[in-house]
Amino acid sequence: MSYWLKYPTQKGLYGIFNDSFPPIMDGVTLTVENYVYWLMRLGKTPCVVTPWNPVKGEYPYDVMRFFSLPIQSRKPYRYGYPKLDPFIWSRLRKTDFSILHSHCPFSSGRLAVYVKKHQHIPLIGTFHSKYRSDLEHSFKHFPWAVPIIMKRILNFFNACDEVWIPQAYVEDTVREYGFKGKLTVVENGNDFASLIKGNPADYKLDARKRLGLPQDTLNLLFVGQHIWEKGIGVIVEALALIKDSVDFRMNFVGNGYAASEIQKIVTEKGLADKVIFNGVITERRRLSDYYAASDLFIFPSFYDNAPLVVREAAAMVTPSILLKGSTSAEVVDDGRNGFLVNKQPEEFARLISNLALDRQKVMRVGIEARNTLVRSWEDVVGEVNDRYETLINTTSRK
């Protein structure tokens, strides 16, 4: 079959498994890309195992693909069907892995468990998302399927030698799902960590010039999937409340099943001249300019665990407005390195209006967000590699 870019031949590969991979871009994809890049810089040999995608790509490392079909309710995502792939099982058995790390409990995760059992090597699973919310949307017409799949997710994590979470407060969600084992906190990194040199205010001003954004207007930003679970409806309602009193521009970056409906509502509320939909931006330097050019990053989501976007915004000295009580907000001290509100459009509108009158406070909070929330991927993957080697050595001595 034609959907493997390369068949791994090296020994002692570090197997990185995930259901999303370029051209599909999300926070977990970005994590996988940075793991692989920095592991290679450390002299390791990674191999990514992921569902096949019709959009081809060339990579300086091995990518093993397996049969997949599109998820109609979550385009452009695809779901892997390894049981329909006659070759993936033997390829995995014949590939010499040293360690396995799955960033997803679904099809790629099941393959990782398969390799673990056949090669008797350690498997790490990272808990990245609130999977039940995803399933409830994808199977809204078949709700009986959700508990069945949730049981499979729990089985995956129970099969892992270690389970990692990106921040301590994610433990509540993992326990809610029924996992009783040990959890290890391994943070996510940030590839924007070292971009700003010199005065942050000057850098942000230059970013606005590069993007052609107004200098004095309050620039607002959302980056992520355009799905209702992210709270985008609250953003639009809040903007409608301040459209006549605050001079703002709102940039949306991303795509998702709700994108066209969101754009329609924006037009209906008379916001079309203040709101810009930029689609997916895959060029990282250009995306960093959107973060830097913004005054505030708005992310009213209960859906996310430890979103990379909040830390990416912080790296560019842009503080976030988050929901009180959300997992995303657990790293934020209100008014010090971010802002917290309840999930009511009126509260968002009031806060944005007040901050529009106090740009110096916004800058101070942005600088503190950068100081407290940002860690480089190089640093993170250095820690990851140490943990890998410890687990490999511990397993080999058994």
Describe it.
With 398 residues, the protein is α/β, with parallel strands linked by helices. The protein has 2 domains: 13-189 and 377-396, Rossmann fold (3-Layer(aba) Sandwich); 200-373, Rossmann fold, CATH 3.40.50.2000. The protein contains 14 helices and 15 strands. It has a 7-stranded parallel β-sheet, sandwiched between helices. Strands 12-11-10-13-14-15 form a 6-stranded parallel β-sheet, with helices on both faces. Strands 4-5 form a two-stranded antiparallel ribbon. Strand 13 (296-299), helix 11 and strand 14 (320-323) form a beta-alpha-beta unit. Helix 7 (200-211) crosses helix 10 (284-293) and helix 8 packs across helix 12. 45% of the residues are buried. Residues 1-9 have low confidence and may be disordered.
Short description:
The chain is an alpha/beta fold.
Question: Which tags fit this structure?
Answer:
single chain, 398 residues, alpha/beta, Rossmann fold, 2 domains, 7-stranded parallel sheet, 6-stranded parallel sheet, 14 helices, globular, disordered N terminus
Strand content: 15-25%
- As for the CATH topology of the largest domain, it is Rossmann fold
Rg from C-alpha positions?
A: 21 Å
Number of strands: 15
- Major beta sheet summary: 7 strands, parallel
Order of adjacent strands in the largest pleated sheet = 3-2-1-6-7-8-9
- Order of secondary-structure elements: EHEEEEHEHEHHEHEHEHEHEHEHEEHHH
Spatial shape: globular
Number of domains: 2
Q: Level of helix content?
A: 40-55%
| Unreliable stretches covering 5 or more consecutive residues | 1-9
CATH architecture of the largest domain: 3-Layer(aba) Sandwich
Distance between the termini: 38 Å
Helical stretch count?
Answer: 14
The chain-level mean pLDDT equals 92
CATH superfamily of the largest domain: Glycogen Phosphorylase B
* Sheet/helix structural class: alpha/beta
Assign the CATH class of the largest domain.
Answer: Alpha Beta
